[in-house]
């Protein structure tokens, strides 16, 4: 069978008037793609991290196309990660641009200092319950504080919802909520151009992590302590919806565009299945907590990229538990896993 790697690179059909502005980030993921739509209104998808180098690079990218930051009329955010929205506040102060983002995250974006710290505590509490040692949790706090230096609050002037349409003078984008990588992941579908602006929902060269975060509706969580964090389950459901779409290209937040989204989604699903089996094997081998599994599978990365690795493990554990393949017993405040 021919795999994506063997196939000749198909020509990428990026819609007219749309082009990437690639900015450096201080994060492991590397560069981030912003997508400029030279139409009316002049629209920028995502804003990059709040660093001087990212801002300079953006200014240069806009100048090459005959624009300035001050000309921006609309900023559209794909999700609430620092590498995607960090600079938005600064850009708005200079341009007065509208800010469109998923409505459920508007409160978070408008009050990021407080909300991101609250979210960190929410996540930490759950990780400790899954066997994360306190001293590792402290290290993760430091990493979190570092990330918080790369964004500032921004007011969402236009909260978006599933089914909305973003209008341009020469095209329209249909708005879809695709939670998983983050709770706010939003994709924009240009049906006529058969193109999807996808943020980090589906990336060509790295699989998008389904990160644990505070549920969008914190009140709901408080009312129902049994409510599960299901980032990976949400992500799989979101990918299934994207798989149904007829697309020639997905313009992502990192790396090159995706030209065969169905093959890539199938590849990602197969990788998830393999990892589920591996995790059951690790539990059978006597690794009792999620952190034990993280350490067994990722080694020192489990200490350095705590949030990422633990999200990966917990997402898979929830799927396994949902399928009745594993169970957890709470002993001294820590969840111990066993095969069923
Ligand atoms: Zn992201």
Question: Could you characterize the architecture of this molecule?
Answer:
The chain is an alpha/beta fold and 340 residues long. The chain has a single domain, classed as Metallo-beta-lactamase, Chain A (4-Layer Sandwich). It is 40% helix and 18% strand. It has 12 helices and 13 strands. The chain is globular and about 60 Å long. Mean pLDDT is 92; it is low at 1-8. The structure holds zinc ion.
The end-to-end span amounts to 36 Å
CATH class: Alpha Beta
Task: Look up the CATH topology.
Answer: Metallo-beta-lactamase, Chain A
Total beta-strand segments: 13
Q: Which structural class is indicated by helix and strand composition?
A: alpha/beta
Query: How many structurally independent domains?
Result: 1
| Low-confidence residue ranges | 1-8
What multimeric state do the chains show?
A: single chain
Radius of gyration: 20 Å
Largest sheet: 6 strands, mixed
Q: How much β-strand is present in the residues?
A: 15-25%
H/E element order: EEEHEHHEHHHEEEEEHHEHHHHEE
CATH structural architecture: 4-Layer Sandwich
Percent of residues in helical segments? 40-55%
Number of helices: 12
Strand order of the largest sheet: 1-2-3-4-5-6
Form type? globular
CATH superfamily: Ribonuclease Z/Hydroxyacylglutathione hydrolase-like
InterPro entries: Metallo-B-lactamas, RibonucZ/Hydroxyglut_hydro, Sec-metab_biosynth-thioest, WH-like_DNA-bd_sf
């Amino acid at each position: 069978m021919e795999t994506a790697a063997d196939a000749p690179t198909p020509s990428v059909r990026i819609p007219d008037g749309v082009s990437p502005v690639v900015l450096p980030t201080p994060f492991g993921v590397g560069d981030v793609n912003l997508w400029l739509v030279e139409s009316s209104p002049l629209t920028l998808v995502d804003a990059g991290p709040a660093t001087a180098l990212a801002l300079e690079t953006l200014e240069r990218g806009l100048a090459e196309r005959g624009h300035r930051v001050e000309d921006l009329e609309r900023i559209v955010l794909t999700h609430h990660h620092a590498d995607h929205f960090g600079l938005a506040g600064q850009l708005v102060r200079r341009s007065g641009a509208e800010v469109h983002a998923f409505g459920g995250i508007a409160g978070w974006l408008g009050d990021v200092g407080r909300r991101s710290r609250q979210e960190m505590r929410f996540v930490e509490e759950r990780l400790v319950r899954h066997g994360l040692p306190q001293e590792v949790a402290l290290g993760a706090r430091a990493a979190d504080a570092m990330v918080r230096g790369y964004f500032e609050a921004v007011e969402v002037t236009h909260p978006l919802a599933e089914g909305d349409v973003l209008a341009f003078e020469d095209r329209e984008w249909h708005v879809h909520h695709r939670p998983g990588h983050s709770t706010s992941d939003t994709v924009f579908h240009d049906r006529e151009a058969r193109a999807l602006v996808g943020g980090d929902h589906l990336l060509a060269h790295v699989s998008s992590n389904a990160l644990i975060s505070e549920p969008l509706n914190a009140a709901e969580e408080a009312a129902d302590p049994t409510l599960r964090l299901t980032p990976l389950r949400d992500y799989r459901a979101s990918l299934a919806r994207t798989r149904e779409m007829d697309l020639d290209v997905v313009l992502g937040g990192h790396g090159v565009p995706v030209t065969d989204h169905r093959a890539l989604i199938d590849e990602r699903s197969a990788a998830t299945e393999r990892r589920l089996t591996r995790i059951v094997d690790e539990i059978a081998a006597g690794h009792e907590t999620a952190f034990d599994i993280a350490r067994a599978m990722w080694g020192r990365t489990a200490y350095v990229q705590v949030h990422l690795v633990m999200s990966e493990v917990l997402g898979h554990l929830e799927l396994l538990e949902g399928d009745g393949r594993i169970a957890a017993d709470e002993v001294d405040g820590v969840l111990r896993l066993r095969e069923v």
